[in-house]
Amino acid sequence: MVTFIIGLAILFVGAALYGKFCERVFGPDDRKTPAYTKQDGIDYVPMRGWKNSLINLLNIAGTGPILGPIQGILFGPIAFITIPIGNIIGGAMHDYFSGMICLRDGGTQMPEMVRRYSNKGVYTVYQIFCSLLLLLVGAVFIYTPGDIAATQVFGFDGKATSVSTWVIYGVIFAYYLIATIFPIDKIIGRVYPIFGAILLFSAIGVFIGLFVKGYPLIELWDGWNGALVSYGDYFNANHFIPIFFITVACGILSGFHSTQTAIISRTMKSERQGRNTFYNMMILEGFIAMVWAAGAMGVYNLGLQAADASLATSTIGVICKDILGNVGGIIALVGVIVLPITSGDTALRSLRLAVSDALHLDQTNVKKRLGLAAIIFALVAVILVFAKSNAEGFNILWRYFAWSNQTLSLFAFLGISVWMFENNRAKYVWMPLIPGAWYAFVTITYIANAKIGFNIPWTGAYVIGVAAAVIYVGVIIWYGKKRAASKKFV
């Protein structure tokens, strides 16, 4: 338990220090925000600071900070240290600057941010890549909460041939459609406080239960091969780098988050709320990831659940019910179900906004919003049917989702870096470049080796990954300096 506590101390102390540093580097001021200058009663709507923070937390925290850590903890207690460090200097910094730059630039969405701070070619690639990811997110975040609800809350079999499965999917689908087309303060702004209360009960309940139940956790300095689980062997056999960083994903870094912070940039009353709304909410997601990683290690070490990455979904139910009992466990499971649902709805909302911005489509009329949403939802439905009907469908979907989620962050780090060059902050460009270089290495190495990628042997994959990271950093520095110089003489 000591390593777990040390990890939490790193997370919260580090966040207090580095979050303040990020705020000082950006320099929020008292200018009017887009929520006022572009107020339209639909997407540009001034909302209270606590509500923006809660909405952003629920937007970014899907199944990633739960399923990822449950699988990632199989690598051993190193996860309790890696998650908080990566979250502080990577994920939270990524979310803060993405959200703040979109806020200052008039509430732009991420495709527009990428266009402003790169070129047409990069923008086109990002627009396509981002749209595909958001479609995957929409499908994944109907599938996973639907299956958890079906099998662990209502007791159905969750099979593709069961009517109950598709009824549950349909209910989630209908909610997504409503949340996608209605004004943000009418649906999302009203139901999220309720969802937030359930989420907090789930996370804090499991956290307290870890200590009350005395869950046995492996320490960093102990032998990693316990009586029931051989964490050390798993670590050695499964290439901690890059597999761990693709698996854990959202608890450390998520490119998807930038698409969500951009939505909140249109509802914030003040730039000075950014640190709490963007940076600190990602830190809370890191806390959620730490809690579920510890819970999973506890049930694995007690033999309550087999230590098998493919059983991550069922592990959630074991943790909830063992720690909180049947009633509390059901409430906690509802909290887990809430997470992906509150990310899926805004994923599809941000896709609608991004497509409408790119194609200059008027979205002030309900019928026009519904028309665009109908096309998006039809595509999500096709993906969902494939994933559920094909034996390997969801595994394929999840692997591509996890990899593309991390890869998307490279575009945000590019935009942040160039923004720094153009705004007299070039001496701080190491802030986005360090995590950017790391994830360029991680994502390229992974896809080079993976069966869903190029199936290149590990040695070759690592060489390609290093080369990609070096090229990524070199090109950004060259391009950023070029943009800064051209702007200086305009």
Automatic annotation (TrEMBL):
Question: Matching InterPro entries, A to Z?
Answer: CstA, CstA_N
Q: Which Pfam families match?
A: CstA
Q: Where is the CstA N-terminal domain?
A: 2-142, 163-292, 317-445
Q: Which UniProt keywords apply?
A: Cell membrane, Membrane, Transmembrane, Transmembrane helix
* Spans through the membrane: 123-143, 163-184, 191-212, 239-257, 278-303, 323-342, 370-388, 400-421, 428-448, 460-480
Q: Name one GO cellular component term.
A: plasma membrane
- Its GO biological process terms? cellular response to starvation
Where in or outside the cell it occurs: the entry states:
Cell membrane
Q: Does Cytoplasm appear among the keywords? A: no
Task: Give the main localization category.
Answer: membrane
How this chain sits in the membrane, per its record, is: Multi-pass membrane protein
Q: Does the keyword Cell membrane apply?
A: yes
Family membership: Belongs to the peptide transporter carbon starvation (CstA) (TC 2.A.114) family.
Descriptive protein name:
CstA N-terminal domain-containing protein
